[in-house]
Amino acid sequence: MPSALTSARCVFRRNYLNGIRSNMTTRTATRTTSSRLRASSQQTEGTGTGTRGGVALEGLRWNNKFAVRRRRREVDGEPTGKYTHSLTRCSFIHHHPNQETLPADPDTSNRTRQVENAIFTRVDPTPTGTEPTFIIGSSSVAELIGLDPAEFSRPEFAMIFSGNAKAPGSDPYAQCYGGHQFGHWAGQLGDGRALSLGEVEGSSSPSSSPSSSPSSSSSSSNSVRWELQLKGAGMTPYSRRADGRAVLRSSLREYVASEAMEALGVPTTRALSLVRTGAQVMRDMFYNGNAQLEPGAVACRVARSFVRFGSFQLPASRGDFALVKTLADYIIAEYYAEDGVEAGDYAGWFGCVARRTGEMIAEWQRVGFTHGVCNSDNFSILGDTIDYGPYGWMERFDPTFTPNTTDLPGRRYCYQAQPEIGQWNLLQLARALVGAGLLDEETASDGIAAYGEALVTRYTDNMRRKMGLKEADGELAHKLLMLMYESSADYTNTFRTLGGVTVADMELAMEVKEVPSRLQRWFGDGFEEDRDDKEMAWIEFFRQYVALLRKQGVTDAERWEIQREANPVLVPRNHVMVEIIEEVGRGEFAGLEAYMKALSNPYGCDDEVEEAWLEPAPSKPRLGVELLSCSS
Fold first, then answer.
1. Cβ distance 413 to 390 under 8 Å?
2. Nearest-CA neighbor of 392 among 378, 403, 384?
3. What does 356-371 look like in DSSP terms, one character per residue?
4. Catalytic residue among 377, 387, 398, 407
5. For 354, phi and psi rounded to 5 degrees?
6. What is the DSSP string of 435-490?
7. DSSP SS3 for 602
C-alpha cells in the first residue's frame, strides 16, 4: 500500500500504543507495517469463519418514490393510536427501479453460486413446516418502526418472523459481499442465512447517551427508514456449504447483545424479536465431530443499513470499480448527507466512517465488550456493532481476553487488539476505495488519522468518566488497570463499586492498610498471590487517587454522578446466558424477560438485579460457557 498510508499507520501506533498506553494495557505488536499494507493483489486466500448479516439495497433510492406491494392473503388487523404499522400494514418500502438503482442479481434461483456485478439477490425465506413459538420481543424497537408491540402476541407474528410466512408487501433479498476473515482474504461471502424483508418507515432512535449510535440518532428528521432482517430463515445463494439456519443459543445471544448494547450507549444494530421455529438444526458446536441436534430459532435484526466494509471490498477485488463508486454514492446520499457530506466528497465520507468506527471501538473498550470475530465483513459502514457471534463481556480483567475458540491461538481479536484491528479493517476499505479512484494516498491517510484521533479522544474521556475525574489522568488510569489485572478483578463490578468508595473510605483503608471489603469482593485468585504486596499497591493507588480528587476539587457526590453514568451495574455474562438458554429451551421465558428488563436499564437497575447476574465467572474460562465457537 502507498507509503502515505504506512506513515499514517505508524503515527497511529505511536500515539495509541505509547501515548495511550497509560490509559489501557496494550499488546506488543509483532507484525511489521509493510505486511499490513500489502496491496490487494497480495491478499491470501482462505475460507475463514464468522457470522454473517445482510443489507436491503434494491429500491433503496433517495428519490422517495416507492411502491407498496401486498399479498393476496393478508392477516387481519389495523394499526391503532400512535402506531403506523400492523402486520397487515407493515408498509415495506420499495422505490421504483430506474437506471440509478443499485444492481440486482438477474438470477433469482436459490442455489449456491458466485454472484457478480450485483449488490444483492432476491430470495424468499424457506419455511420449516413446523409450528413456530414467539419467545420475546423488544417493545422499544417495535415503537421505533411504528409497530404496535401488541402484535407480538398474534400467532401470525411468529409465522412471519420465523420465515414460515412471507411478510405482506415484502420482497426479500440477501446481500453479496466479501471480506477478510482472521487476516485472510475469503473472497465472496454474503448473507448465508440472513434475509432482509425490506424497510419500514419509523422514527429516529431517542439518544439516551452521548455515545449512542450515530446511525440511529444522527438524523435530523424524525422519519427514518429501518431495515428488517431475518437471521436463520433459510438458505441463500451465499450459504456456501451451510444450511441457512440458526440455533436457539446463538439467536438468543444475538437478541440479548443487540438490546443490551443499545441500553449501554454503544452504537449497535437492534433486535425486534426472537422466535423458535419448532425445527431441529444439526450443529457441531466445537468442530470436533460431535454434531448434535439443537432447537432452531430466528432473530429479527433491525438497522438503518447492514452494508459493511466487505460490500466494497468484493467488487474492488474483482476490478468492478464502477460498482464500488455506485455503492459509495448511494451510502453518502442515504446516510451521510446528515453529517454534511456532499455528493462526490469521498474523502469527507471516509473520514466520517473512520471517526464513527473509532468511537464505536472506544465504547467497546469502555464497557469491556469483546466482539470475537472482527472480520472486515463484520464491520458496518455506519459504525454500528454488527453480527453478534462468539462475543463476550470481559469479566476478570485481562487485556488478552478473547471469547472465541477460533481466535485462541493468536488472539488476533482479543480485547486489547480491537483498536488496532479496527484500523486494519479501515485500511482494507481504503484499499478498495483507492483502487476505485475515489481516494488517493493523502486522503486515505487523513481518514486513517481521523480514526486514531476519534478513538483516542473518546477512550481518554471514557476513562476520565469511569474514574469520576474532571480531567483525565492516564498514568493513574494505567495503574488502576494494572492493579485490576494483577488482582484478577472483575472489570464491570470493580469500576461500579469504586464509584461508591468515598474519600473517607479510602483514607481509612490507608490507615488500616486493608482494601475495603466491598471492593475485595470482586477480586479473584490473583489477589491472593503475594496478597500483602497487592494490598500495599492498592493502598498506594488510593493515596494518589485521593490526592488527585482533591486537586481537581471533585466531591464524593460529584464523582459518583460521573461514574454511575459510565460504569454499568449489569452487562450480559456468558455463564448467565447459558442458564437462560437452557430455561428457554424448556419453554420457560420468565428468566429471559427479567434479565432483559434489567439490561434495558444497566446504569440504574440496582434494585432489579439478581446476585447471580453479578457474579464473575471462574478465573479459568470454560469451553461452551466463557469460550464459544463460531458455530451457530
1. no
2. 403
3. HHHHHHHHHHHHTEE-
4. 377
5. -65, -45
6. HTTS--HHHHHHHHHHHHHHHHHHHHHHHHHHHT-SS--HHHHHHHHHHHHHTT-B
7. coil
User: Cα separations (Å) of 304 from 63, 174, 352, 552, 603?
Assistant: 17, 16, 16, 42, 26
Distance between first and last Cα of the chain: 36
Count, residues in the chain: 632
Residue located via cell numbers 500515539: 15
User: pLDDT tens digit string along 609-626?
Assistant: 999 999 999 888 888 888
Give the single-character DSSP code of 618: P
Q: Is 377 a catalytic residue?
A: yes
Could you report the per-residue pLDDT of 179-203, keeping only the tens digit for each?
999 999 999 999 999 999 999 988 8
pTM of the entire structure?
Answer: 0.86
DSSP string, 505-524: HHHHHHHHT---HHHHTT--
CA torsion sign, 590 to 269 to 250 to 299? positive
In sequence order, what are the residues at sequence separation of 6 or more whose Cβ sits closer than 8 angstroms to the Cβ of residue 259? 138, 140, 141, 270, 271, 596, 599, 600
At residue 381, the 3 state secondary structure works out as coil
- The DSSP code sequence of 49-113 is ---------TT--TT--------SSPPP----TT--B-STT---B-PPP-TTSPPBPS----S--
